[in-house]
Design brief:
The chain is mainly α and about 70 residues long. Helix content is about 90%, strand content about 0%. The protein starts with a helix and ends with a helix.
Length: about 70
């Protein structure tokens, strides 16, 4: 069960890094003073990656809880 817990923690960490990357990407685009259309394009590209990173974090946390429950 230790592997399940540590694997889940690693997966959650990867998801968290992805979320931070998405935040920084949109923040840079906003700071660059892009026109509204270009800013929307950047955000539209980041949204699927943001959702994938969030899903990775959730799955990792589910694995951690499952490992604790079964251990």
């Amino acid at each position: 069960m230790q592997a399940l817990i540590w694997g889940g923690a690693a997966l959650s960490l990867v998801g968290l890094v992805g979320l931070v990357w998405c935040i920084l990407r949109v923040w840079k685009a906003r700071k660059a003073g892009l026109p509204d259309e270009d800013l929307r394009a950047v955000v539209q590209k980041v949204v699927p990656l943001n959702m994938a990173a969030l899903m990775l974090s959730v799955l990792g946390l589910m694995l951690v809880i499952l490992g604790i429950f079964l251990g």
